[in-house]
Amino acid sequence: MNALRAWPQLAAPTVLIVAAGLLGSLTDRASQIYFISALVSVAFVVALYVFVGNSGVVSFGHISFVAVGAWAAGVLSVPAEEKPATMPNLAGFLRDTTVGNVPSLAIAAAVGGVFALVAGLALMRLSGLAAGIATFAVLEITNNVLRYTDKLGPGLNVFSSVPETTGLLQATVGAVLVVTAAFVYQRSRFGRQLRAARDDPAAARAVGISVYRQRLVAFAISGVLAGFGGGLYVHLLPTGADSLYLDLTFITLAMLVIGGMTSLWGAVVGALAVSGLDSLLAEAENGLDLAGRTIDLPAGTRIVVVGFLMGLVLVVRPSGLTGGREFSLGRLRPQRPAVVQEESS
Amino acid sequence: MTTVVASFVRDVVDPQVQIDAIGLGAVYALMAVGIGLVFGVLRLVNFAYGQLIMAGAFALALASEWDWPVWAGIVLCFAVVLALSVALEWLVFRPLRLQSPAVMLVATFAVAFLLQSIALLWFGPLGKPAASLVTLNRPVTIGSLDVRKVTIVAIVVAAICLVALVLLLERTSIGLHMRAASMDFTTARLLGVRANRVIASAVLISGVLAAIVAVMLTIQFPLVTPGFALQDTIIVLAGVVVGGMNRLFSATLGGFAIGYVSGLLGGALPTDQSQYLPSLLFGLVILVLLVRPAGVFARGGGPVERV
What we know:
The complex is a heterodimer of chains A (about 350) and B (about 300).
Chain A: H1 2-26, H2 29-55, H3 62-77, H4 83-86, H5 92-96, H6 101-123, H7 128-148, H8 168-187, H9 189-199, H10 201-206, H11 211-234, H12 246-259, H13 264-285, E1 288-290, E2 293-295, H14 301-316
Antiparallel strand pairs in A: 1-2
Chain B: H1 2-13, H2 15-42, H3 49-65, H4 70-93, H5 101-123, E1 128-129, E2 139-142, E3 145-148, H6 149-171, H7 173-183, H8 185-190, H9 195-220, E4 223-224, H10 230-243, H11 248-268, H12 277-291
Antiparallel strand pairs in B: 1-4, 2-3
Helix pairs in contact in B: 1-11, 2-6, 2-7, 2-9, 2-10, 2-11, 3-4, 3-5, 3-9, 3-10, 4-9, 6-7, 6-9, 7-9, 10-11, 10-12, 11-12
């Protein structure tokens, strides 16, 4: 019965993702890139949601898992004969190994997960502000190391000649995989225990839930998904350390907050809604014909609008567009709003 | 290995490195006070603090472009930063006062990005030079040391500000109210402390400090870009948390300490390693947080999860 009632919570986001993929396949090639990057954003935001939504602890560090995933997949899938030219100082193993598309994504997920697990062993001991700052520290360190270590990748340059395999199909399948993993996790006993700890840490401890262990599990799983997302990303665009840093951290968090931090539905809706708006604005920056009038916005308008929107949502509707609730067919019944409760600091 | 360590130690105790590190620590301490004051009364970590400083720096750059005298530029800088602080308090902090710390943190993160991208739209990615203040960046030679004038100014100004702030907090009634509010806001209100007044004063003082920091950072780094002071704010935030957010004193010490350590590392790291300074610094931050999650200089247990 329970399982039956829960299926729309997975079906609705999946339908939305597939719809976005199908819609993208109807447009011309130039516009498809918007749909593909929207679907990759879904992967990032859902990965972040698995930790932030279920634990109630904000993480600024998830883009570091995206970054190591992108680095792993990128370095290993550049054709061997191109490596000496673009990445001359690569370490031996990375220089001599080249893998295909699917293995590179799997490796990206594994690397992201292992990194998150190791970082989480330390970070999950912290809570509140200390945890927030420590995740930020991880982002700073990761970015700094990847940017300046040319043994590991392109260093200050962007990746070149990574096969561009993330088309509509791969992005759609990837996003659906990530959403399914997040759904399975949050229905599992681990996910339930973590959400119990989020809503009432004292009561959760009283029934024997280890908050540390549950947070660590969520952190590692979201690291796997973020690494996988990074793999998708590096196969989409020429990626470098700059594109996997503060701006991406901001936009990913913004998407999650705008959609609603506490539900999978909110994560997917937020990612697609903000990406949609962002693409529209990007077109407008290049000059857009709308109802006979040409709109030409100055470059940089996008992030102003998204930042403004995020502020507005936080002030007017802090639980996000979806109210932080899962999709449900019985929407007409009044439901209690979901509340994120962070531990007192 | 031993020679590396030896040269590192020699560089660390080098007076030139020391004075520069203290100068950086002084500026960061002022930023820490600005962040810590607002945190005390609002429980809000103001991520957008660096963008207040950036706005002030752009005011200085514009004033220098318009050939205003230096004092007029500084007045403009103060006006811009204070106006922006008050606007932020009205538009963002006030409506969010009752939200959870997580929501407030994300909100100020959004504000930071909003302000930065507005600056990007307005001034472009290359920024503007603030040429009129450069004279203060010239060194004076004391004995064998080349001390930049601004380092002396920074240390003196920081000392004056901190003393003034201690007097304000200890000797005036608004200071008493602020201290009471940062210990327990609800009880303080019950005892007749006016919430809006306390918050407004904290925001104003923190704005004044941001303007002062804007002037000093602009002297040292005259090219003002939209990312101005962003990295500094992240470092100071880490320092404040490492020091201990519960008390203004420990937060300030934390800010000074991270500036000082960062200055020492910057001066002592061999040149081919110096690009890894942020990694070292933030690695230290994580280590220290693991040992003392409530803060190095915090008294007692601090903000442990209440069970």
